[in-house]
Amino acid sequence: MNYRIQESDIGLLREAGVSWVDIRHCVKVSEKALEIAGRTGASLDMELIGRGALFHDLGKAKTHEIEHGKIGADIGRELGLPEKVTDIMEKHIRGGLTEEEAKELGLPVKDYSLKTLEEKIIIYADRLVDIIMDGIVDIGGNELEAERRFEEILREYPKYGKNEKTLNRYLGYHREIQGLMSK
User: Are 122 and 116 in contact (CB under 8 A)?
Assistant: First the structure.
């Protein structure tokens, strides 16, 4: 399926109060996730990837703090978004937390780990877009440089890797997804 971002979904972000800067980020993550998904050759739910990526930061309409994932999922449910999309919104914080990590961060205690390739692609795209938009790599028209240097960048800039557990999760997603693309 060839999924395209819907203007009506961008309108939902706007109506919820998401800033233009955050909307631009969400659109870029959605585009990047769809592009990566297409390169994997895997059979994937492209609408879920596109919409999950687009709405992942909906909670930033209320806060930019760590609970924005939970808040966004609550808003998404109120808007009638599919459960698979709101699950992504809730679980995207730090690439999917364990119950122990959720407790340490003051979030509702539950398993936020990512189970599906769709979820992992969205979180990978989110991290890549942060690296690209922050100007960490000189992409010169080629965003693949961020993928090529992903591990190096996450190790060099703690802002992206956060801590050892989060870093290892992101590196695992990177390796899994890149492995699919090299087949």
Answer: no
Correct CATH for 7-181 of 1.10.10, 1.10.530, 3.30.70, 1.10.3210: 1.10.3210
| Prediction pTM value | 0.95
User: So what's the pLDDT on residue 141?
Assistant: 63
Residue 33 and residue 49 in contact, taking contact as beta carbons nearer than 8 Å = yes
Amino acid letter, 45: D
Q: Give me the amino acid identity at 118.
A: E
pLDDT band for 122, please (50, 70, 90 cuts): very high
> Where do runs of H (alpha helix) occur along the chain?
7-16, 20-40, 46-55, 68-78, 83-91, 99-104, 117-133, 144-148, 150-156, 158-161, 164-181
- Chain CA centroid to CA 167, Å: 15
73-116 pLDDT tens trace? 999 999 999 999 999 999 999 999 999 999 999 999 999 999 99
Q: How far apart are CA 165 and CA 153, in angstroms?
A: 16
Question: Do residues 181 and 40 make contact, with C-beta atoms less than 8 angstroms apart?
Answer: yes
- The closest of 127, 125, 149 to 137, measured between CA atoms, is 149
Q: What residue type is 32 in one-letter code?
A: K
